[in-house]
Amino acid sequence: MSEQVLACLFGVLLGMRHAVEPDHLAAVTTLNLRSQSPWRGALLGAYWGLGHALALLALGGALVLLQRQLPPQPAALLEGLVGLMLMGLGIASLRRALCDGKHGPVQRHSHRGQPHEHATLGAHLHVGPWTLLRQPLLIGFAHGLAGSGALTAVAFSSLPTVAARLSYIAMFGAGATLGMAALSGVLGVPLSQTARRPKLHRGLSLCAGSFSVLLGVYWTAAAWGLIAPLL
Predict the structure, then answer these.
(1) Distances in Å between the alpha carbon of 61 and those of 7, 13, 54, 180?
(2) Which of 56, 70, 74, 96 could form a disulfide with 149 if both were Cys (CB 3.0 to 4.6 A apart)?
(3) Cβ neighbours, 10 Å, residue 65
(4) pLDDT at 31 (0 to 100)
(5) Cα–Cα distance between 159 and 64 in angstroms, integer?
(6) Using DSSP, how many helices (H) and how many strands (E) does the chain show?
């Protein structure tokens, strides 16, 4: 079996494992709490993975072609920005949970000029596909930028040719996309059921938001050298 084929297979497997890292799980869980079905959850995960793969190919591919590695300072800055993003997602989740009424969040809008309002956790939800999917795409892109430096370093240390390195990065991104889509779809099964139980849904939003904020604080502090990493 050729070196390039082995690199592709190894990249897919490592990418699927990469999808379940804590920062990725925190981000996708807070997003998945807004989905209405496992299929929509899987789609959110797939768009996260697509954004992640695009960032890896853009920055990681450029570094491979230029025969460079990402310096420590920009890499730390990108990691810290991911932590800030996790804090923002967590705060948004906490805000939604704390502001929801006993029947779930209320949205006021109109149909054919007739304004009305209702709980958005029911089946009567109106969200355009691009509005729904833009956020996980951008969040995945940010995660991919932060991980490009480490992935490129591994590609340089393990693979001798440019073609093999690019193949590895591409397949790593594909594996992460598959892994996150599958994981997000599985998470969507129980989470979609809680949409019919506003109190339980609010409790999960509080837990997911709190975890995301705490992880974001740790992630940023560790990336910027304010505290020692736990691992």
Answers:
(1) 15, 19, 10, 22
(2) 70
(3) 11
(4) 80
(5) 11
(6) 8, 2
pLDDT at 74: 93
CB 210 within 8 A of CB 95: no
Helix (H, G, I), strand (E, B) or coil at 228: coil
Question: How much is the average pLDDT of 63-79?
Answer: 92
How is the chain split into domains, by residue range? 3-101+127-223
Tokens 């073609």 appear where?
Answer: 163
Q: At what angle do helices 129-158 and 162-194 cross, to 10 degrees?
A: 140
Closest by CA to 64, choosing from 138, 172, 141, 139, is 172
Collect all residues with Cβ–Cβ distance below 8 Å to 20 and sequence separation of at least 6.
179, 183
Average pLDDT over residues 50-73: 93
Helix (H) or strand (E) holding 8: helix 3-18
Residue 231 scores a pLDDT above 70: no
Q: Whose CA is closest to 29, among 46, 49, 45? A: 45
- Decide: helix, strand or coil at residue 108: strand
* Predicted confidence (pLDDT) at residue 5 exceeds the cutoff of 80: no
145 is written with which tokens? 């930028």
**What does the alpha-carbon distance between residue 70 and residue 10 come to, in Å, rounded to a whole number?**
22
Structural contact between residues 218 and 63, judged by C-beta atoms closer than 8 angstroms: no
Average pLDDT, the chain: 81
Distance CA 103, CA 113 (A): 25
Please, what is the angle between helix 162-194 and helix 198-223, to 10°? 150
